[in-house]
Prior knowledge:
Leucine-rich repeat, LRR (right-handed beta-alpha superhelix); 2 domains; 10 strands
Amino acid sequence: MPNLMSKWKNLAILRLVGTFQMQEILAQINIHCKNFIGLGILGAYIEQGQASTIVTLLPNIKQLILRHASHEKENLVMILQGCKELKYFDVRDCIGFDEGDDEILKLASHIQTFKPEGSMLYDYYYDYSPILINEYQVKGKFSFTAIVKTLVKHSVTTAVYVSLPDSGFCDEEVLFYIADQ
Length: 181
């Protein structure tokens, strides 16, 4: 996808599903897409690196949608302090900050439309305190089938949490956290 940005010179708004290759994509947008005003990343985990990338490469962005995302409050603060030209910022139903957080509301007070509704510091609905039984590592290319085969091979009956990269296929190490509820 980053290679396409040079052909999309009139691109104004982009919606991403996850943060896979986000830095490369935003770098190309910064170079080639002078009319770019809006970015949407739904349901992703926004780490410090991604927040920094948004601030560094898109400091003049007007619309930002990070709905249903998870991120540390510090990363949201970084975006609010660094993207001064935001007119529309949607962080509804996020995990990592409270919708009524005074610091966040003060930093966002200059934004014409700021939507923090439904956001909470912690999602109590999914709180379950698992007991870690074992960790399994798979290296090399993998797929959902490979994950299931690994779990079956180790006689795992309950997979509570499986950490996968955004792409679904990769060459990096993946950890499987197997827990008993």
